[in-house]
Amino acid sequence: MLLKFSIATEQAKLKDIEKWLGYKPVVYSFSLPSGWTCPFALNCLSKAHRITGKITDSKHTTFRCFSASDEARSPHARRQRWHNFDMLRQLDFEDMVTLIASSLPHDCDICRVHVGGDFFNQKYFNAWLHVARLFPTKQFYAYTKSIPYWIASLDNIPSNFILNGSRGGSRDNLMDEYNLKIAEVVFSLEEAEGKDLPIDHDEFYALNNMGNFALLIHGTQPKGTDASLAIKDLKQQGINFSYSRKKVLTT
Length: 251
What we know:
It is built from nine helices and ten strands. By secondary structure, it is of the alpha/beta class. The chain has one domain. A hairpin with a 6-residue loop joins strand 3 (46-48) and strand 4 (55-57).
């Protein structure tokens, strides 16, 4: 039995990738259960119940994880992500590498590691690094709050694996201390401008080592929260902040 990947080429966020890349890549994503596999999540920590999909936010949540909201709506997404987690968490490092490598779609040009979930321990983080080395012609990238695992392997990151530290976790201090590349969710254009951060609408900054960048708040947010009001304001301004999927197929 193999892990399940989703084809992501037609996601709204990736629709313009061909313009700056020069060709239209085949993009896949891999996911785990949001929140349940995110040991260092803080400001975005939300979990969808495996069976019912009911969402639980933590006391530290300032904006709800967009991927947890997807899982709340989609039994298929929950089944797929828990399938992946159930298979991986019982394995040692070598078996993780073998399983991931054998499951990776052959036509994949770019793989986003985790639309939902994160690196849940060091051996799993290292397994993905090793898989990237096994496929040097493929591009891998990830957003992560599992900064301690990144730091522990800082000198062993393959050139075809782009990591983006996700601000809002419990170990943000390490990103600043080690001058890591950071992605930060902002609630408005003005906030991004005040922080001198370009906004990434099409994964250009995520896939290139060109410094820190911002992502506009997106996803379903609890009614009446600052995050919900920010999305309402963005909609009223006609700003494209939605990264929803246009088509999802799985392997």
